[in-house]
Design a protein that fits this description.
The complex is a heterodimer of chains A (214) and B (555).
Chain A lengths: L32 H8 L13 H14 L10 H10 L7 E2 L5 H19 L9 H13 L4 E2 L2 E2 H16 L3 H7 L31 H4 L1
Antiparallel strand pairs in A: 2-3
Helix pairs in contact in A: 2-4, 3-6
Chain B lengths: L2 H7 L5 H4 L2 H4 L9 H5 L12 E4 L3 H12 L4 E4 L7 H4 L17 E3 L36 H5 L9 H14 L24 H13 L4 E2 L33 H4 L1 H6 L3 E3 L2 E9 L4 E9 L2 E6 L3 E3 L2 H10 L22 E4 L2 E5 L14 E3 L15 E5 L4 H10 L5 H8 L4 E8 L8 E8 L5 E6 L4 H20 L4 E5 L2 E5 L25 E3 L14 H18 L4
Parallel strand pairs in B: 1-2, 1-9, 2-5, 3-16, 9-19
Antiparallel strand pairs in B: 4-12, 6-7, 7-8, 10-18, 11-14, 11-17, 12-13, 13-14, 15-16
Classes of the chains: A mainly alpha (214), B alpha/beta (555).
Chain lengths: 214, 555
């Protein structure tokens, strides 16, 4: 018997419009212990922020909230996960010739974001209203491969979204949101056909073609 | 062996007699034969080995097993760990970061190629620990693209030189798939796997368009093979197979090598190949293990560090006799490095596809592999199912420019998407190469810088592949498609050639400059075809081992 608690079925922002009742953590007893240790650690306490300075932390958190549209609690602790990776220099194993290594590129790029904010507004990026932050970020994306504060904008964009998505979509709350069951060893799958579902998977209850909603 | 045993062990061609790896793994729920590892031979640095191998992936481990079987005293040094799938690997995407080579590297050129997770392995088993498992053969035409089409290069060997080795390795992995109609038509030792939702989509779309699609070829045993259990279709092939169902040299060649007296020395980073300046022969390798510098003596040095680290090691092994880098008198080291253009196209279906629920490698087509005279470009591409897990899928979605609310909406729709990937034969070019960067790693060694720029033929191929994938998905009923540009697989960088002005190695993969220095990884390829390279790397290494052991005797 698996005990249910307030930890079960959590989704970022607390909404679950598409896979009601789906709960990745209801299956932890089916996971191998090594995998369970790695995945469940993401739900536990995180190290204090060490890589970013307090002002960098505020800018980075605002940027990550924007990139992942995290407006309400509970939030996946993406800033803390990013900070740990950068402290540990757990990079993807490459950097562009015209960008510094990832940690420095993060510091440089969020500094540039703050400069853009101060050029247009009386406060820095972290204290701007949601829509004002979004406009500044959109302007960086719109530059594509043009230069932004001496950096190739598209490469900065790729750095931001790569780290942000890796953190967010590694979290069981995000899997609850998208209907993905997470670890599958030693259990495997038995119904891998179009429309096939395992007993623990939940059907999409509010199908929305993203083309019609974005 | 009796008839019953043939059925029991899953092989019908006597694999066990030439490679008993699958029978040297434990039965039951453990994935490692700890006794075999603990009892394996240990050589001293001062023992002169018949051969020391640098890198224990597809090319290195195959050499290790073949040379050990031939009675050679041989050790493979690998920079990474001697993996234990039970303890070291997880059924999780982000948690598998340690499988990749993530030491610093610099990428440059007009179309820089990201490294790490997508194409660079770490530890015993190499990149095959995290490859999808596709093991197609090259086509006969791949070995003479210059003669046939005026592009690329001719190999100093032909398909016929590899044919029998393809058959041997396909038995040892073993490979499962339908009868293969393309290239040199052939069959596979194991029957095709059942397909999941993504494979169904591909088959449906291809059928509607009259494109031939086949299940396989996948190096995942279909049924029990030796002591390896059946695949459980859990979809985490790219995160290391915790089941021991998907083939990698860690389970297909290393166990048999150990049983025949070979040593695997993990956590040992080779920094420099030593060459006697007077005789111009390699005498061994310098390596660092746990911070201590060692020198392993050997009569032959076999390098199999793959297309970035192999050229880097040669360039970092400069000496008075080779001031521009070892074997680099003609400025060939690191050049003609190739990647495949690997766009991936997603298609949205009203039905739930749940593509994560089966091995990503399922179905492929090679209908577009050969040069089509009616097209403006030369050579071609293959198309295969790929089934990205959420983090990789999020990269695809973000690659379309979606962020914030749009990104989340697309990601919540994950279960409705199917995904195909192409492998486009991008051409070898001299300026696509590895050089040494100013930057140093934590050992003080210059890191590799990889410059890459596509030519017009490359861009046309990628565009054409994208068009076909989008058509297939639409023909299968997709309501929306999106294509993400990326690259896959590394080969070249120390290629075979007819002479030392055009490459680093002769047809036996011995270097022109240092005759007892061989290279047996993917960097030896002059062209890459549209095939995933693992099988051809292993088949070529098996061929090279045969050539070496028939022309040279162990000490």
């Amino acid at each position: 018997m698996v005990k249910r608690s307030s930890l079960n079925g959590v989704t970022p922002g607390g909404h679950q419009p598409r896979f009601p009742g789906f709960d990745v953590l209801s299956q932890t007893h089916m996971w191998d212990p090594i995998t369970a240790g790695v995945v469940l650690a993401r739900l536990g306490p995180h190290d204090a922020v060490r890589f970013f300075t307090p002002s960098e932390q505020a800018i980075a958190r605002a940027l990550l909230d924007q990139l992942l549209d995290q407006r309400e609690d509970p939030k996946v602790p993406v800033l803390e996960m990013l900070d740990s990776r950068l402290v540990e220099e757990s990079t993807d194993g490459w950097r562009y010739e015209d960008l510094p290594e990832d940690g420095q590129a993060w510091k440089q790029s969020i500094g540039a974001l703050d400069k853009d904010a101060l050029d247009k507004h009386p406060t820095g990026f972290a204290l701007l209203a949601w829509e004002q932050q979004a406009d500044i970020i959109q302007a960086v994306q719109d530059l594509q491969s043009d230069k932004w504060h001496g950096m190739t904008a598209s490469r900065v964009w790729s750095l931001w979204t790569r780290y942000a998505c890796t953190a967010y979509y590694s979290h069981p709350w995000a899997w609850n949101e998208i209907g993905f069951p997470g670890p599958a060893y030693p259990r495997g799958y038995k119904n891998a056909t179009i429309g096939g579902r395992e007993p623990f998977e939940v059907a999409d209850h509010h199908q929305v073609d993203p083309l019609k909603q974005t | 062996m009796g008839v019953l045993d043939l059925f029991r062990d899953g092989s019908a061609d006597g694999v066990r007699d030439r490679n008993a790896s699958a029978w040297l793994l434990p039965l039951g729920q453990d994935r490692v034969n700890h006794g075999l590892r603990a009892d394996a031979r240990r050589y001293d640095d001062t023992d002169e080995l018949d051969a020391v191998i640098v890198g224990c992936g597809a090319g290195g481990a195959t050499m290790l097993q073949r040379l050990a079987r031939a009675g050679w005293r041989v050790a493979a040094l690998d920079a990474g760990p001697f993996w234990d799938p039970d303890r070291d690997w997880v059924s999780d995407e982000a948690g598998s970061h340690g499988l990749y080579w993530t030491e610093p590297r610099v990428i440059a050129g007009e179309n820089p190629v990201p490294l790490g997770s997508n194409n660079s392995g770490r530890g015993v088993g190499g990149s095959m620990v995290h490859y999808a498992g596709y093991t197609p053969r090259f086509h006969p035409s791949d070995f003479s693209t210059y003669t046939n089409d005026g592009v690329g290069a001719d190999w100093p060997i032909s398909y016929d030189d590899l044919r029998s080795y393809y058959g041997l390795i396909e038995g040892e992995l073993p490979v499962a798939g339908q009868d293969w109609p393309w290239g040199d038509p052939h069959r596979y030792p194991h029957s095709p796997h059942p397909v999941g939702g993504n494979g169904e989509v591909f088959q449906r779309g291809a059928f509607a368009l009259g494109i031939t699609a086949k299940v396989g070829p996948v190096a995942i045993a279909n049924g029990r093979f030796g002591h390896r259990p059946h695949c459980i279709y859990r979809g985490f092939c790219l995160q290391g197979c915790k089941v021991n169902a998907k083939a990698s040299p860690l389970i297909t060649h290393v166990p048999d090598a150990l049983a025949h007296g070979a040593e695997v020395r993990p956590d040992s980073m080779v920094t420099h190949i030593e060459v006697d300046g007077r005789t111009r022969r390699a005498t061994g390798v310098h390596y660092i293990r746990d911070g201590i510098e060692h020198f392993q003596k050997a009569a032959h040095v076999v390098v199999a560090g793959y297309s970035i680290e192999t050229p880097r090691l040669l360039l970092n092994s400069a000496s008075n006799a080779f001031p521009n880098g070892l074997c680099n008198d003609y400025d060939q080291v690191g050049r003609y490095l190739m990647v495949q253009g690997a766009p991936q196209t997603g298609g949205r279906f009203d039905d739930e596809v749940r593509m994560y629920k089966a091995p990503p490698p399922e179905v492929s087509t090679e209908d577009f592999y050969e040069t089509d005279p009616s097209k403006p470009y030369k050579r071609g591409f293959s198309i295969q199912t790929v089934s990205p897990l959420p983090i990789t899928w999020a990269e695809h979605v973000a690659g379309q420019g979606h962020w914030g609310h749009d990104l989340r909406v697309y990601m919540r729709d994950y279960v409705h998407w199917s995904c195909l990937g192409a492998l486009c034969e991008l051409l070898p070019q001299p300026e696509n190469r590895v050089t040494l960067a100013e930057e140093k790693d934590r050992r003080g060694l210059p890191v590799a810088k990889f410059s890459y720029t596509m030519c017009d033929n490359d861009k046309q191929l990628i565009q054409a592949a994208r068009g076909v994938m989008e058509e297939i998905l639409k023909a299968a009923g997709a309501t929306e498609v999106m294509t993400f540009q990326r690259y896959a697989h590394l080969v070249g960088g120390a290629r075979m050639a007819a002479d030392e002005r055009h490459g680093v190695l002769d047809a036996d993969c011995r270097s022109f400059a240092v005759r007892n220095l061989l290279i047996t990884d993917g960097s030896v390829f002059p062209t890459q075809g549209s095939a995933n390279p693992a099988l051809t790397i292993m088949a070529n290494a098996a061929r090279v081992a045969d050539r070496l052991t028939t022309t040279t005797s162990p000490t």
